[in-house]
Amino acid sequence: MHANDLSRWTHSHVFDPGSHAAERGTRAVMWITAAMMVVEIWAGWWFNSMALLADGWHMSSHAVAIGLSAYTYVAARRYAQDSRFAFGTWKIEILGGYTSAVFLLGVAAMMTFASVERIVAPQTIHFPEAIGIAVVGLVVNIACAVILGRAGDHHDHPHDEHAAHHRHHDLNLRSAYVHVIADAATSVLAIVALGGGMLFGWNWLDPVMGIVGAILVARWAWGLLRDTSRVLLDREMDNPVTAEIPEAVADLDHGGSTRIADLHLWRVGKARFACILSLVTHDAGMTPDRVKARLREHEELAHVTVEVNRCS
What we know:
- With 312 residues, the chain is α+β, with helices and mostly antiparallel strands.
- Helix 2 packs antiparallel against helix 3 and helix 2 (19-47) packs antiparallel against helix 5 (127-155).
- 66% of the residues lie in helices and 12% in strands.
């Protein structure tokens, strides 16, 4: 039996420098969102607009969740040199994205409850003032989306052709972006609802749009929850890289006597994977060094451990 290990990452390289741009963007958006949250909650309460109030409550959870996203970048950078993290600190960012998704589901439930309450017990709405606040909220959300979009462009290193080919979105940055887009969508729905109420007397449209917004937020939250939990649970064996590894081994096995006895693949960074590969072979030329040299062509494999079991 022979074993060898290929590790092209050290702890000093685990933290992606592009995360600095994402951290700055999320921090700026957090403060902008918090300020707008205060304005919308006050305005929704003062003008009796459920759509506007729901948007403000929605934004309050976003301020917390986006702040959490910013903090996870800080934590990942702070502990990047900590040897207790066997494969680096990237999953701290994923944990932040997962938590944000849970926040979004809570917001959707809160919006639904409050909207149903207003359908049962409608109240007088001050439409012109509420519409003005909703428009300001939409402009703020668009500005925040632009900030995070630019941070994402900086984060993805578009000059790297391989990274462009194997693009894996920053799920933590994506969680912050989803919060902002959800805010923008609920602002649009609030404007439509308030406009319909003011022009046609459709006051029922205000809480109904609150429910529609809750459904949209829940759908986005579920998608984010699915993607982040996949990483946290190491559910990566259906990744295309898994199919490429047997092909690489087959290229080296000219006698047809080698088979893969065990293969494990899990993610340790954006487009970066760790792999444990166990082979059984009669081929005396099949060595860990040959296998790892062949797998080096796959840049997404950051850590590879190869074990060769020889049969007589």
